[in-house]
Amino acid sequence: MEAATELIARNGVAGTGIVDVRAAAGVSGSQLYHYFDSKQALIRAVITRQADAIVRADQPRISALDSVEALRAWADAAIERQRENGSRGDCNLGSLAGELSVRDEESRTDLANGFPRWKDLILGGLRAMRERGELRADADLEELALSLLAALQGGVLLSQTMLQVAPLEASMNAALAYVGSFATGTGR
Question: In the chain, what are the domains?
Fold first, then answer.
């Protein structure tokens, strides 16, 4: 899985073959086909792995998005990761969606099931902020969560396409400003 994820991050789904994954992982064809009966099965497993990665306990920057500072740290971490990889991308759900969702209905379904995990993590943090009185009662938390997720995913895709971090910075800054527009004096 790790080898497949790294190859897809570097070469995309279309540019990653089973032979490449076998070579990178140092496994035989029979070993690989024991777990994955096709490239499609391997790709679906990578999608699930990447969807699960957002909610793993070893992801401290995104485990509690329950303050303006935590949201800013999350955005800064995403921007820094793009900067570190030269805006070449990553094997994240947004990149996979850009490559797979139009032509592969099974992958599209897997991706559609993965994004709510991300949204729910953000939504949980926003709810905690409102419960502490840091966000106004009239804030549409569902909309704010989707705005943050769309800013991240769209910003990453544009950064990868344009090979510069500026689109991700702009989209995250705009989404955070939108969240901030609902902040009370306590949450600013």
Answer: 2-180 (1.10.357.10)
